[in-house]
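Researcher: Good morning. I'm working through a list of sequences from a screen, and I'd like to move beyond sequence-only analysis. For each chain I'm collecting a predicted structure so we can compare shapes side by side. This is the next one on the list. No need for commentary yet; just the structure.
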Amino acid sequence: MTVQLSVTARSPRLTRQGLRYLPLAAVVTDLLLVALSVVAAYVARSLVPTSVIPESFSTNDQVLAALPIIVLAWLAAIYVLGGYRPEIFGAGVEEYKRVITPSLVTAAGTGIAAYMLMLDLSRGFFLLTFLFGIPILVLGRWTMRRAVQRARRAGRLQQRVLIAGTEGHVDEIASVLGRETWLGYDVVGALTPQASVKRTTGLGVPLLGESGSLAQAAIDQHVDVVFLAGGAFSSAAEMRRLAWDLEHADIQVVIAPSVTDVSAERVSVRPVGGLPLIHLDRPRGQDALRRAKRSFDVVVSALLLLALSPVFAWAAWQVRRDDRTAPVLFRQPRAGREGVSFSCLKFRTMVVDAEEVLADLHAEHGYSRGLFKLDHDPRVTRPGRFLRRYSLDELPQLVNVLRGDMSLVGPRPPLQHEVAQYDDDMARRLHVRPGMTGLWQVSGRSDLSWSEAIRLDLYYVDNWSMVQDLVILFRTFRAVLTSRGAR
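Model: Good morning. Structure tokens for this chain:
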């Protein structure tokens, strides 16, 4: 694997100008949305009869004068609380927090001001303003984030990055930044603690010198961000000098500790005596075995079995109509929790002798290990193509969930020969029940490599939360409708 560099594809000056437009675009968008919510609340309240909300409401000068004041105060609160800082755009929940918190502050300030100044401000108008405004603002930021991420994947709105640290740590950070292209980080080079005769790291990142000259290299390379990975400096004094040297340069300094694939919920920073200590919560694999998750699985799978019974009948009829001599369901041994084998149920989508010809396909396509998927598998039947495209073949696994063999969300249920290839790290994915869906599915399904599928499963096990399960279920529905990665 090599890091994709684009240092000559785009002018650093043009890149920075594009990045500077993000806060301005956010200001204009927020202004329009806040103004829309205030006007909509005013109109909606004027249309509601007093029999529904028993209070007087009239288009007096006092109410009209309050409209632009609320809009300006709202935008000012977002600005003061950091809602337009360039680094918050495009990733993380912080962007949404810095819209929601100022909105609540504005609501509180408006209420206090109306009380202290004895303004005749309608309670209905006040309530509707923020009931409309907060969701609309969050939706606006979400839409803007999607646009920014699409632009970054297309190579625009990139931030030029220089990484300092030992070669191993540099490659670790560079691999994450290269994989998550939506973050918009373009790695232009790296510096190591000691000079190297090599021109690039093992991952292909250009080596530009020693980390002692990091400040000058960052200025010469016109970078936007400097990442400090493990081993960048031998003392805290050197790191302070770097901050001093870049004090008047428009360059961010980011400390990247050797902690990857850890969710934000498990990480907290606690400054003690001027030393920022990073606290890492324990992995959450055991939490995924608790009764709350199992109860959720039982209730939801039972409801889905009842609701989707017509789909089950239709799918079974399609399979039976294609081959009346073959069974409708395909039972395949899979490894469940702690490697215990169980029969994974699916609607049959392949010819009856699919397993017998599998070895020939392995040899023909040079398969050695991991997932085996073909774009046009000759074993798939005519109705099987449709069932696979929309993942309808996996619906019988709801029975596996109800029986306790599987969960609605979890790692992909592996074959026993795949488990035989696991090392100690990979075996961690067997600590929880396998799932009908999971991060592996909503992140690409069959388009993922073997190593990427394993990485996502391990991430899920270590960072499990009920909220994450709900998000994955929602994203699964979207992935199934678009047939992304299905084969």
